[in-house]
Amino acid sequence: MATNKNAVLRYKILDSCFSNPYRKFFISDLIKICGEKLSEHFGYEVTVSRRTILDDIKFMRSLAGYDAPIISVPDGKKVYYQYEDPDFSILKKPLSTKEMESLNEALQILNRMKNLPGFDWVDSISAKINSGLDLQHSERKIISFEENEFLVGTEFLSPLYQSILNKNALKVSYKSFRSEKPIHIIFSPQYLKQYNNRWFVFGENHEFKSIQNLALDRIKKLSPSKHPYCESTVDFEEYFEDIIGVTNDLSKKPIKVIIELSDQVAPYIVTKPMHGSQKIKDNILTLNVKHNQELETLLLSYGERIKILEPQSLVDALKLRVSDQHNHYFK
User: Fold this and answer.
1) Residues 6 or more apart from 46 whose CB is under 8 A from it?
2) CB count, 10 Å around CB of 237?
3) Where are the domains of the chain?
4) Is 307 helix (H, G, I), strand (E, B) or coil?
5) Whole-structure pTM value
6) Between 20 and 30 A from 306 (CA), which of 31, 142, 235, 251?
7) What topology does CATH give the domain 154-232?
8) 65-90 pLDDT, tens per residue?
9) Chain centroid to CA 117: how far?
């Protein structure tokens, strides 16, 4: 199978077209859609030729490719393309023996890495690969991961990642929840982080010359910028050390939060810490973190099972939010 990344992406795009029984896809449509999707994925304009699409169709039909039942249906002087079997998809095709062997080899390499410092994530990746391999032999799903298949903005992950690696500044069209129209930002992306099942990119806003975080689900468009890339002076491991979530007001200092835990919730928080700074003694939890929106939201999620003792400023902020919520239901 062709290993060119663009080719693999085109096969997936074409697959989604051929699987759609409600629209006729002529060669001009396939050229346009592939160009648009690839440009959106990479963050810069990509053009696709007629010859490339015809070669892709030929490869997908072949035994060396996916043995896909692609048919050309006459429509006047033109033809459109679709799968003869509407239930066919290259994504449903079982892995070949060679592909299975390659995955097993990758799994063995990952397993050798998982005991190294900083490679805790390998356990999760290994479980996902094992899950995929096991599904080749079983129709019953026995493991699932917390993923949101409807998450918006993940198409920007790859171009942002590549921009960070290659140190390219970008022009970002961005619309926050509070703004009516998108704004345009010259931005040097430097770090990607997932929190609460949402992705964020951190980088330098060229106008304000400061670190800003952008939610990927609020990005409307990425395009290359001619501005020089701003090198990061921030240690992002340290940047997140004193916060829960992604909001970090650099002018604030961490505060000591003291919380009384109920007997029911204490074992849960012991096994799933709120933050790396947490200490628990006799059902009294202490944290050293900055006061931000994510801290408030996390504490409120425990409801009546916890009680904030200090500081008073945090207690007052939570009281106000609880009062507002109470008024929604008991006016």
Assistant:
1) 6, 35, 38, 39
2) 9
3) 5-92, 97-134, 154-232, 255-329
4) strand
5) 0.59
6) 251
7) SH3 type barrels. (2.30.30)
8) 888 999 999 998 899 999 998 888 88
9) 24
Query: Would you state the structure tokens that stand for residue 122, as one six-digit string?
Result: 């390998």
Which pLDDT score is estimated for 156? 87
Q: Return the closest-CA partner of residue 170 out of 111, 212, 129.
A: 212
Query: Phi first, then psi: what are they for 274, rounded to 5°?
Result: -70, -35
Name every residue whose Cβ is closer than 8 Å to that of residue 17 and which is 6 or more positions away in sequence. Answer: 23, 25, 29, 30, 33, 81
CA distance 263 to 242: 27
pLDDT in tens, 102-147: 777 677 666 665 555 555 566 666 666 666 555 455 555 555 556 6
Domain 255-329: CATH class, spelled out = alpha beta
**Do 18 and 83 touch, CB atoms closer than 8 A?**
yes
- Rounded Cα distance between 203 and 180, Å, is 23
- At 168, phi and psi to the nearest 5? -115, 130
Amino acid at position 258, single letter: I
* C-alpha pair distances (Å), 250 with each of 87, 160, 290: 53, 24, 10
- Cβ atoms 186, 225 nearer than 8 A: yes
199 is written with which tokens? 């992705």
Residue with tokens 């007001």: 249
- Percent of the chain's residues with pLDDT above 90: 55
Between strands 25-26 and 78-83, the pairing is antiparallel
